[in-house]
Amino acid sequence: MLVSQSQTSPLPNPALTSGIDDIAERVYCGERITESDAARLFSHQNIVEVGALADYVRWKKHPEPIVTYVISRNVNYTNVCWVRCGFCNFYRVPGDEGGYVLPKETIFQKLQELSDAGGVEVLMQGGLNPKLKLEWYEDLLRDMRERFPHIIRHAFSPAELIYIKKISRLSMEETLQRLKAAGLQSIPGGGAEILDDRVRSFISPHKDTADEWIDCMRVAHKVGLPSTATMMYGSIDTIDDRVEHFRRLRELQDETGGFTAFAAWNYQPDGTQLGGSRAPAIDYLRTIAIARIYLDNFDNVQASWVTQGPRIGQVSLRYGVNDFGQTMMEENVVSAAGCVFAVPIEEMERLIVDAGFTPRRRNTRYELVS
């Protein structure tokens, strides 16, 4: 069992910040840290000190000893995708054996199972399938809204939305307005990977650029669609690349305020064209802690226990994380790369309690639900 946390924000502890005293002082005074500060935190050898600083920020934002989670289900409506990202083992190019588009009735069956389990959110994402036009998405969203009005439709990453826009020959705003009118309520932050085109051109050369991803999110927030933000690190990215990723997210959040949460996970190499090795758990804890400190305008930071495992997810609650993410009734993308962690709701709540917190269910908008 981890050491229990006080139910109020912890006082600054100078003994836990040796070597980064100036950064800690700015954090304790409520000042914004810089990109060079973030880079120093990445190079600071004592990860416990970085974690203590992130934990302080977390308690300042969330003084109640609550860790939230959402009962959700991933629905990957198609695995057909033409972009061939080197880090992905889920896709099938058009015409390949094993490619699919889920029939509506299959999707509705999955949503019924989610509803029966008390679920409040569907996370729906898929490949960039050239056969699926904007009208297909609008029709699906309308039917989902009619049949399951109580399940929030958190769907379609920027990569999908940008592709839908292009093949429909519409502007980003027109595309998002139409999808919103059909029933889209929130956008997942997938596809961000690293918001640096040097990295993106290597790991996913046919995908959208960093500017396109940012612009899609900017327009989504403008039309009233909130979103999450993500980072997939550990492929070929450097520390400077990660800091640049954080910078772009923080600047957009300053501009729009439309991000509800941030989540990070490491690249999963098994079976991918890109290959390589998996970043260790200590790298995850450091990265998520620095995200909490640097992304001072993000209220929520999610654990990525699906890729890290439930124990590291639990430890991350002391490294700035205040949300345990979603229950995984189904997951197909990272599991295709050899990552298969899954826990039932009871185990998730036990992990939260053993870390010294009270588990509470939420919805996509981070509103607490019974």
Structure characterization notes:
The protein has 370 residues and is of the alpha/beta class. It has helices at residues 21-28, 35-43, 47-61, 104-116, 134-147, 158-168, 172-182, 197-203, 210-222, 239-256, 281-294, 305-308, 310-315, 345-354, and strands at 66-70, 72-76, 121-125, 152-155, 227-233, 259-266, 300-301, 323-326, 358-361. A three-stranded parallel beta sheet has the order 8-1-9, with helices on one face. Strands 2-3-4 form a three-stranded parallel beta sheet, covered by helices on one side. It starts with 20 loop residues before the first helix and ends in a 9-residue tail after the last strand.
Summarize the structure.
With 370 residues, this protein is of the alpha/beta class. Helix content is 41%, strand content 12%.
- Let me know the average pLDDT: 88
Give the amount of beta strand, in percent: 5-15%
Low-confidence segments:
1-9, 333-341
Largest sheet composition: 3 strands, parallel
Q: State the helix count.
A: 14
Strand order of the largest sheet: 8-1-9
Structural class: alpha/beta
Number of strands: 9
The end-to-end distance, rounded to whole angstroms, is 27 Å
Helix content: 40-55%
Detail the topology: elements first, then pairings:
Blueprint: H1 21-28, H2 35-43, H3 47-61, E1 66-70, E2 72-76, H4 104-116, E3 121-125, H5 134-147, E4 152-155, H6 158-168, H7 172-182, H8 197-203, H9 210-222, E5 227-233, H10 239-256, E6 259-266, H11 281-294, E7 300-301, H12 305-308, H13 310-315, E8 323-326, H14 345-354, E9 358-361
Parallel strand pairs: 1-8, 1-9, 2-3, 3-4, 5-6, 6-7
